[in-house]
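Figure-free illustration: sequence to structure, shown twice.
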Amino acid sequence: MNNKNTDPKICFATNLKRYMELRNVSRKKLSEDINIKYSTICEWLKGTMLPRADKMEIVANYFNTTSSRLLEDPNAEVLVYKYPFVTKIPDGYTLEQASDEFFSGWGVIQHVKQVPNHYGLTITHECNPMQPRYAKGEPVSFKLTSFVSDYDCDYLIRRKGHDAEIVRIYEDQEPPFIVEDDENDDREIIYYVMIPVYNEENNYEPYHTFNLSADYEIIGKAE
């Protein structure tokens, strides 16, 4: 028998009841705390009405969750994925070798959909003072990837001869230049800038390249 329910009103009603029971929050208290009519709360819990996006966000924030979690099918199978954190990923080490030698703990993800592979780096000392996004001792999670999909984001990379480090990758704001190519159309070359956020060498000079995949090993994107 398939118990999955795709009606978002019913899914929301079931999840809302569960969060209210876990927090011991009555309908009256919820109504007062988020300034929503008691009758509206009742309609939500009956599954006859779905909150507008702004009201859904208010409810999600109140229960310290997300709108998408409130709309998930409560009967769907939840996937649990465990991934390692390490204190360093030295040059020449595979992720498995780093996990064996520099293991610092486990991270866990729970989701109802397929979970992408993750890896974690534990910050062992202070970050770049100009890019202080992580604190000493903080575990930082990365979705494993071998390419850059977005810019102005933090990535876990490794330069040849160096341990893995965290950098923020930007497209260079200078105008691109054109390279003449006899076999193909002229190619537009764009330089990329990487600002070190965290590394073992306390070296925070920017790196520049026009070929990320050739010059640097991309390991993961910060989550």
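We now fold a second protein in the same way, so the two outputs can be compared directly.
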Amino acid sequence: MPEPARDFLLLGNLPCLDLVNTVPVRRGVPCDLLPAFAELVAWLEAAGCVTRAEARDALARWDGTAEGRGVWKAALSLREALRTMAERLAAGRSVGPEVVGAINAVLAARPTYPELVAVGRRWVRRERVPGEAALHLLAPVAASAAWLLEHGDPALLRKCENPDCVLYFYDTTKNKRRRWCSMDGCGARAKAAAYYRRERRKAR
């Protein structure tokens, strides 16, 4: 199983945007971080969509199977729909019914029913999933996109200001003025470039 935290760029503040960001540009070339089902499961664990135990179970049950390949392809299709969502929201446009349809299709694949469970001396209502399928792995990603469209502020969904960067994020900073995918990456490069320009002007 790939090392979850090593390659993935978990800086979007929402799983739906972190999925979009699994195709970063490295050395000027798009790089797909999800080439197969195993990497998808590693990303789901790194993004907090499944636990380590759930990730191991998913690999044991579906890696190398038709169902595993099917959910991997479904994840790539969902990623393209979410990329369209991010692009349109960042541009101040409506996401369109095809994007909402793609999100709803994943949500509909994981039906739930309410169940009462004992928590100490009281009863608490919880949602239970009847059965388990590989496609259920994508439900938390679709749920985060649904939250964004229902409760989020579209003005806070932004693309990194580096014109060569393709990463998106939902700004949760206190002053709501985040500009870069990360200060260690594009932010640091922008600061270095600005410093270089100032020094050149002083030298003239």
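Summary for the second example: Helices lie at 4-7, 15-20, 37-46, 52-62, 66-90, 97-108, 139-151, 183-203.
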